[in-house]
Amino acid sequence: MTIKPYIIAEEARLVDLRRWFHAHPEASMQEHETARKIAAELDSFGVPYQLIGDTAIAATIKGTKPGEGKIVALRADMDALQMEDLKDTPYASKHPGYCHACGHDAHVAALLVAAKVLQEKRTEFSGEVRLFFQPGEEIGAGARLFLQAGLLEGVHRVFGVHVTSLLESGEVSLTPGPQNASCDYFEIEVTGRGTHVSTPELGVDALYIAAQIVNNLQSIVSRQTAAGDSVIVGVGTLNAGTQYNIVAEHARLEGTTRAFTPDSRAFTNNRVKTIAEETAKLHGGTARVDFKAFASPLINDAEVAEEVRAIAAPLVGEENIITNNQKALMADDFADFLAETKGLYALVGAHDPARPETGISHHHGLFDIDETALLTCCNLYVDVALAYV
Question: How far apart are CA 65 and CA 118, in angstroms?
Fold first, then answer.
C-alpha cells in the first residue's frame, strides 16, 4: 500500500480515537457520549458543525482556494450493538450490554481524522466538504435525519466506507450496482375467536392461522421470485394464545424482507400483505399487516465506482481493488443517500490473516479489526473529497 504521508502522520491519533469509541459504545439514536466526543474533537480542529436531532452531527469544511468548487458529502455511522463485548483487550467495552461489533468505531475515527486533514488542506480546494456523523444505522433511522435537514441538497457526490472482516487488509471493494439489500420490518396481527380446545369448531384458531401464514410466506421466494433474484422473507417471532387448553384468539408475528431492487422490494412486501390477509380470511379470521421501512436497496453508481477506482488505485494498488464483490443481504441506510445523490459505498478489508481475531464475523462479541484499515479508510475519505472539491 502507498498511504499518503499526511495520513500516516495521523496513525496514532486514528488508533487512539478508534479505541476510545470502541470502549464507549452506545445504542442506536442514544449516542450522546459519542456525539460529545466528536464535537470536542471537531472543536479542537477548528471545524464548524451543527447538531441534527439529538446525536447526529453535520460538519462543514469550506475551501479557501479561489474558484467555484463542488460539494461532496462523507458519511460515518456511529451506533453500537446491544450485545456483550467478549474481548479481553484494554479497549473492550466499558458499557455492559453494548459493543462496537460492526466497525462503526473505526468509521467515526477515520472521518474525524479526515476532518482534521481536510481542514488543514482547505487552501487546496474551493468547494465544500460535508461530514455526516450518523446515528442509528443499525435500526435504519439515522440517514433520514440528514435528508430531512436538506443536507444532501447541492451535493455532487456522497461517499461512505465500511470495514469488513471478509476482505484482507489492503483490499477494497468498489463494486458498482446492487451491494446491499433493502430491509423492511413487518408485523402481522391475527385475530380469531377463542374457545375451549375441546370444541375447536366453535372458534377460529389464530395460532393455526399464524402457522399457515409462516408457511405460505415462503412461497414468495420459492415460487414467486425469479431464481436469479435474491430475496428473503424471514419470520423471527410468533406469539399466540394465553393457555394450553384455549384456542388462541390472537397471534402476532414479526419478520423482515430483503431485496436488491426497488421493484423486487415492492413486489415482495405486497405479497406478504396479501398472503397474510387472504390466509386469515380463508380460515375465518382477519390479519392486519404493518410495515416499517428501515433501508432501501444499496445501489452503487457505476460512474462513481470508476471515479473512486482511479483515486484508490495509487493508495492500495490496482490488484487489491475488487469490482465484483458478492452482494450481501444485510442492509445499510447509506442507501438513502444514494437514492438522492450519486455516490459509492466502499468496503475496506480489515482482516489480517496472521491475527485470527480480525477474521471473526460482524455482530459477534469477539469482533475486532486490523487497525491498519483505519489508514485506508481515512485516506479514501480525504482523497475522494479532494478529487471532487
Answer: 13
Judged against a pLDDT cut of 90, whether residue 239 lies above it is answered with yes
From the list 10, 41, 79, 352, the catalytic residue is 79
Helix (H, G, I), strand (E, B) or coil at 297: coil
Helices (H), ranges, the chain:
5-8, 11-23, 32-45, 104-120, 143-148, 206-217, 219-223, 262-282, 302-316, 335-338, 373-388
pLDDT of residue 1 exceeding 80: no
Domains of the chain: 5-180+297-388 (3.40.630.10), 183-295 (3.30.70.360)
Q: Ramachandran region of residue 347, left (φ > 0), alpha (ψ -120 to 50) or beta? A: beta
Q: Which of 31, 137, 171, 307 is the catalytic position?
A: 137
Which is nearest to 192 in space by CA: 239, 238, 251, 235? 251
Instruction: Name the phi and psi angles at 283, rounded to 5.
Output: -105, 15
Cell numbers describing residue 34: 459519542
pLDDT, tens only, 95-112: 999 999 999 999 999 999
Residue 228 in this model has a pLDDT that exceeds 90: no
Give dist(CA 95, CA 187) in Å, integer.
31
CA pair distance 188, 290, nearest whole angstrom: 7
Looking at the DSSP bridge assignments, the partners of residue 76 are 133
Please confirm, yes or no, whether 41 is among the known catalytic residues: no
Query: Please, what's the largest Cα pairwise distance for the chain?
Result: 85
Catalytic residue flag (residue 16):
no
Grid coordinates representing 152 are: 444532501
Tens of pLDDT along 371-382?
999 999 999 999
State the DSSP code for 204. B
Q: Given CA atoms 273, 276, 279, 284 in this order, what sign does their dihedral have?
A: negative
What CA dihedral angle connects 81, 114, 3 and 159, to 10 degrees?
Answer: 70
Residue 190, burial from CB neighbour count under 10 angstroms (0-12, 13-18, 19+): buried
Question: 67 forms bridges with which residues in the sheet?
Answer: none
Average pLDDT over residues 106-127: 98
The amino acid occupying position 83 is: M
Beta-bridge partners for 184: 257, 293
- Among all chains, which residue has been given the C-alpha cell 442514544? 30
Residue with cell 385475530: 191
